[in-house]
Amino acid sequence: MSLKQIVDSAIAIADKDGLSAVSMNKVAAALGFTTMALYRYVPSKEDLVLLMQDAVFDISIPEEDSAQWRENMCAFALDIMRCFQDHPWLCDIPASGIPITPNNLRIVDWALRIMSDLPLDHREKISIVVMLTSHARVHRFFQRDMDRAVQTGVHSGPVPGVSYKAALDHLVTSERFPYLSPVVLAGAYSPENDDKDGHAYGFEFDFGLARILDGIEHYVNSKL
């Protein structure tokens, strides 16, 4: 048994059944060992979750960046989003402090490399890293829960089992909601109609990312 086998097994369990399904007992059983044997490698479940998080952020970082910092920061954000997309349970891990594990530090270092020539101080650069990673995390957290709600028919309305589209068509009329109604009719309000055509993770994520980068670009230009 190796530490990598333990972490990979825990990730497989979390990918299938969620973070709450991960336990030292289940991981040990999946590997054919006793729980006590697992503790020789990992002191606690909290440590195991930390190792899982670091393992899935093993992003392939390019050796060189392109000439356009904005293009590079977009690639950075998309790679972060891909991790949350592939492993939805990442959203359930609370922030316990600044990143200190190897892969997390590699990612931060990559982002700082991209911004190395920008007229920003260290605190501003770190704030941008936090802003972009938060955008990916929050969007995926929201999208994951909305996907679950759509799939199970759960929603905030009084009639369980009714689809979002059916509920909106019934509730949102032009007389009651004159400005919301055309948005609903266009299919832009319901998560069942999320537009991913030409967008890696949906229009809302890409639109938000582009506007964040617009703001950063404007701020950078103001300091030149």
TrEMBL record:
Residues 1-60 form the HTH tetR-type domain. It comes from the Bacteria. Residues 23-42 bind DNA. Keywords: DNA-binding, Transcription, Transcription regulation. This is TetR/AcrR family transcriptional regulator.
